Every structure is written in structure tokens, then in C-alpha cells.
Amino acid sequence: MLSIKNLHASVDGKPILKGLSLEVKAGEVHAIMGPNGSGKSTLANVLAGRENYVVTQGEVIYRGKNLLASAPEERAREGVFLAFQYPVEIPGVSNIYMLKAALNAVRKARGESELDALDFIALVKERMKLAEIPEEFLYRSVNEGFSGGEKKRNEILQMALLEPRLAILDETDSGLDIDALQVVARGVNALRSPERAIVLVTHYQRLLNYIVPDYVHVLASGRIVKSGDRTLAQELDRQGYGWVAQEGAAASA
Amino acid sequence: MSVATESLDSLLKREYQAGFVTDIEADTLPPGLNEDVIRLISAKKGEPEFMLEWRLKAFRHWLTMNPPSWAHVKHPPIDYQDIVYYSAPKTKKDGPKSLAEVDPKLLETYEKLGIPLHEREALAGVAVDAVFDSVSVATTFKDKLARIGIIFCAFSEAVREHPDLVQKYLGSVVPHTDNFYAALNSAVFSDGSFVYVPKGVRCPMELSTYFRMNASKSGQFERTLVIADEGAYVSYLEGCTAPMRDENQLHAAVVELVALKDAQIKYSTVQNWYPGDEAGRGGIYNFVTKRGICRGPRARISWTQVETGSAITWKYPSVVLEGEESVGEFYSVAVTNNLQQADTGTKMIHIGRNTRSTIVSKGISAARGQNTYRGLVKILKGAEGARNHTQCDSLLMGDKCGAHTFPYIEVRNPTAQVEHEATTSKISEDQLFYLQSRGLSSEDAVNMVVNGFCKRVFKELPMEFAVEAQKLLSVSLEGAVG
Ligand SMILES: Nc1ncnc2c1ncn2[C@@H]1O[C@H](COP(=O)(O)OP(=O)(O)OP(=O)(O)O)[C@@H](O)[C@H]1O
Ligand SMILES: [Mg+2]
């Protein structure tokens, strides 16, 4: 589904990703861990198509096509979804209005008919139960005045509605209480299917108790320095990143 | 170049959708202005003597005045002798008596504009008075309104049929000496709308006027007077369009609102005069004086305006808060794109005790557009306990446009509370990217963010016009983004 080869990317002229490679197949869940500032969000943003993130080398193939050639909205319509580490507030735009516009844009691209208001409400209410978001949040401005946890749940709601093929969750578990963590886990697990792939960026092995990953990768200094199964996450939890970074340095030397 | 700037730059290639010209036989005076022209206008309209006297008084005063130079707008001097002061579609007799007599071409024009002129089409509950160039062409729903005592008619008709009301209120809010353009209007105004809602009557439908400038070189000088007697309520909407022409056309209107004790007037404007092309050729000079007075206790006047058109907009819908506890409101969205210039805002004059005013201004500047908010909040000595809150936000699209804010505050009573908040921001790339990453095109993303920015103002518009305003806004900033 997703094949990243030797990816180099800079932000405002500063190189952040330095030769990152990653293969994600349909049906898989990958967890990406790594120290602060190592480039995890940069990777997520590059995949979603943020424009001031410049790819200087390497390639990203998504479902057989060069992902980097398309605009962010085209990627979204092709099924790429990014749950933001810091969801953005949009004053004056009601959540329901944005959700409906987004869903219909994606449906249209898939060749499905647009949902009218009634069908949409029925669907969104069902998905809100999954994300455990009270109905009033539909009528509030997008993320405005939402608590940190509410913003994250709102991202899960969007994911549940848009049903992406490739979901990238950037620290959606950070700052969540235990209940909210389970909401995120439920949302992701509900999406899990042989046709879909999920990339979880996280700092905590805790989330991986609820969403069992097929692979765990450590990103350090702009590259994947170690990959393994879920036991790697447990090891990181005990020992921190120091030993991996050293191993990585030794390997690249 | 960033995606956002790129989308914004292509946004700027908008098209003006109301830019067609109607081929109609018109009764048009040659350009130029003198006392004879004024006598002629007055005669053509069959006006009573007092009206002609008033016009002449205004004209003589106008001759002593100079155009204002303080506004933050630039334009070449206007040659007032090169303007046509009267142009009316030709009719068999004196004027159309009913819809059946209205030229079908005119009706077609209004249809193109989406105006429900035929009563059966106006089931939405909008009574429309349509002003084409200089004359009011047809007023719908008149009879239904008349049954509950509401007068809604062309201004020239009111002059003939209700001279006492006109004489009592005309110029009582905006005197003929008020300013250069108001004086000119008072001398040459050709038509407009007149509304009187009697004591205790709540007008059951939105009243609406559409203005259209069709004739070349013509100026439009309409005059609107809305009177809400004690305890009455009326909501009034005005919409405007004009064909695309290379030369600039002058629109110098005057609107006066009078709200007596416990009365309420909501006045909404969706202004979409031709703004000129990308190079700044053509477009309407929209120099308008709008003012309302809250004459009695607890009277309330709200101005809501969505200004997307015109090459230059110069207008300050104001409220004089005379009655105790009276309320004045001003909600404004002004968009300037390409080379458009807007200098707009309001004046809230607090005279009575415990008067309140609210000002919400949203300015959007794109391309090389210049947007100025100019507002005056004046609290007079007797305005014990007066309060004002002003919120003034500017949104910039691209880096060649400008936003300017000139708030003037004069407080002569120590118990008054005046608050002013202002923000200026660039349209946020984070917001646009967030929406795009959800599948919205960059154009839709921009529209969504901008509409969100204007929400507080749109909320004040009657429902069907809020939808229209949103569409208009996206058209104004449109042009195939992405
Ligand atoms: N606009 C920018 N200009 C310069 N440096 C930037 C810019 N944006 C990000 N960076 C830098 O890029 C590096 C990687 O940032 P990134 O957000 O990808 O880290 P992360 O792995 O997601 O960290 P965290 O775990 O804290 O979320 C950081 O050192 C950050 O300071
Ligand atoms: Mg991050």
C-alpha cells in the first residue's frame, strides 16, 4: 500500500528526514516511536502533503502511484487520512458543516453519491457513538474551545466517517485519559481491515496494549533506526531510546 | 509560492455574474446638472411644490460644498457635469400601474438577477420594490401590506400620495446639508423606496428593494425612507447590481431610518455593484449616506451589510441613539479584491441614558484591495450609563492588500463603558491545510474559513439572504483555485 524509499525532507531549509524507508502493506498496523524532534510529525505531514515540507530525495509510492505528485485534497480523496497531533481550530465553521463537506468530497471522488442532510446526520450520529462525542459538538465550531482530549476524539470521529485506506495517527493518544484512550483504540480497531493500513505515531506502549501493532519502528534523527514486533515497544518502555540510537549510530558507521 | 497564496491569486480572477446590459428604450436626460435639470426631474415625477423647493435648496447648498477628502480612497476627480441625472425605462403612459404594464425585458432582467418580482414567485415572503436606474418599477405585495396599514411603495409615489409623511420625515435624519453626496442626492434623487409601518404593527414579511443601474453614464441617486411608528417592527433588505462598463458610475444614495418608541428596524444590505475589472477599469463609486435615529425609548436599529461590490465604497451606516435604552447595531462584512477600495464603518451617537450599541466589522482584503474600517462612538454628556462594544477584525489574503482601522471614540460621560477590540490576521495556512487534508479543494477551504470569519455578521441576515451572501462571498473571492 505504502512504500517509502530513502526519503529526505526539509522544513524551511532545515533537513529533518534523512533517508527514511518504510513498507506498509494492506491489513497492517505499524507503530512509529522515537524521541521528540526526531521527525515523526514531519513524516506524517510529508505524507499528507503539507506544502512547506520539501522532499529533496527519495520516493513515496501509494497504491502504485507517486503520492508526492498530488495535492493534499487529492491524497485525502485517495484515502490518506492524517489525525493531527495538534488539530486546528476553525472559528465560525460548525463541525457538522465541515464533516459533511469533507465526507461528500471524499464520496464524490470514490464515485459514490453525495449524502443528503438526513442520511448524513444518521451516519454521523452513529459514528459519534463510536468516538463517544456528545451531539452538541456537531454544532460547535471546528475544534474551537475543545479540550485537548475532545480535539483528539474529533479526529477519530473524522477518521471513522471518512473511512480512509491509510490512516496516520500522530500522537492521537497523547494527553488522553484512560477512557479516551480506549475510544481511540476502538476507533482504530473498528477501522482495521485487510484492505486498510494504519500508522500510529506514539510515545506510549500503553496504546499498543489496545491496538496491537504488527510492527514497531524507532525513528531517530530522521531515519528508521530499528524495527521489530510489539516486544520492541515494551523494551523501549523499559530502557528508553538511548540504546537504540547507539545501535543505529553503530549500524550506520 | 505557497498553495494558499497560489489559490488566493487564482481566486482573484473572479467573474462578475450580474454584468449584463438590458436593451431597453429609455427616457434619458443629457448629462449635466443645473437648476433646470432639477426642475425637469421634479416635473417628470409630478412632484408637489414643497419637493421642488427642497431639491433646489439642497442644490444651492451643494454648490458651496467640496467632496470629502478624508477617506482612505483614491480616485480621479468626478466630473459632475458628465453624469446623467435621470434615466427611466420608457413606458406608454406615466408609469406602470401594474406588473402587466412592466416591460417584459425588465422582468427578464430581474429574473436573471433572481428577483421574485411576480407575486406568485415571491411566496418566499419577500415583497420587492425594484429600482431600475432612476425609477421604481414595480412593488409587489403592496395590497396585502396596505390592508394592515403598511405603506411600501416607490419614493416618488409616496411624495404624491403621502406628502405629509414625506414632508415630516424627509431630511429629518440626514439633512440636505449633511455632506457633499447627501446634498447632491437631495437635489437630484430620482426614486427609491418608502416604508411606513404604523403603530404596533409587525411587518409580516421581509421588505426588499433591488437596485439596478443599467443606462450608461447614469448615476443612481436613490432615496429611501423607512419609518417604524411606536412599537412597530420591520426588516428591510436592499440588494444591488450593475452591468459591467468601462467607465465609473456614481451611486450616491441616502437612506434614512426613523424608529419611534419601542420600534425596531432591521436594515440589511447585500451590495454587489460592479467592482471594476482586474486592472481597476470601471466599477461603481458607491458613496452612500445611511443613518437611522432611535427617536423614542427602547427603539432599536440594526444595520447589517455585506459589501462585496463597487470599485469604491464610502459609507457609514449610523445610528443616533436619542431615546433612553435605545439600541444601535452595526454588522458589516466588506470584501475588497483586485483594486477595490472600501472605507466603511459606522457612527454610534449616544444621546439618551442607558443607550447601547454593538459594532461588529469584518474586513477581508485580497489581491491589492484596500479595506478601511472607520468608526465613531460618541457618548454625549447626557448619555448616563451608555455602553458600546466594538469588534473589528481584518483578514488579509496575500501580501499586496491592506487593512486599516480608524476607531474614533469621544466620551463625555464618565459612567459610559466603551470597549474596542481589533484583530488583523492573515488567512491561516494551518486552517487551509487542515481542511484540504480532509478532502476539500483549496477553493472550498478558503470559502469555508472566510465564511467562518464572517459568521457573526451572516447570522444577523434574514435566512434566505444569509445563503445569498455566502454565495456572493465565494463568487467575490472566486476564480478557480487549485
Ligand atoms: N518550520 C520549521 N523550521 C525549522 N525546524 C522545524 C520546523 N518545523 C519543525 N522543525 C524541526 O523539525 C524537527 C522534527 O520535528 P517533528 O515535529 O517532526 O518531531 P516529532 O518527532 O514529531 O517530535 P514530537 O515527538 O515532539 O512530536 C524538530 O527538531 C523541529 O524543531
Ligand atoms: Mg510530533
TrEMBL record, chain A:
Keywords: ATP-binding, Nucleotide-binding. The keyword ATP-binding applies. Gene3D superfamilies: P-loop containing nucleotide triphosphate hydrolases. Pfam families: ABC_tran. GO terms for molecular function: ATP binding; ATP hydrolysis activity. Residues 2-246 form the ABC transporter domain. It comes from the Bacteria. Belongs to the ABC transporter superfamily. Ycf16 family. This is Fe-S cluster assembly ATPase SufC. It comes from Candidatus Muproteobacteria bacterium RBG_16_65_34.
UniProtKB/TrEMBL annotation, chain B:
Residues 211-453 form the SUF system FeS cluster assembly SufBD core domain. It comes from the Bacteria. GO terms for biological process: iron-sulfur cluster assembly. SUPFAM superfamilies: Stabilizer of iron transporter SufD (SSF101960). Residues 146-203 form the SUF system FeS cluster assembly SufBD N-terminal domain. PANTHER family: FES CLUSTER ASSEMBLY PROTEIN SUF, UPF0051 PROTEIN ABCI8, CHLOROPLASTIC-RELATED. Belongs to the iron-sulfur cluster assembly SufBD family. This is Fe-S cluster assembly protein SufB.
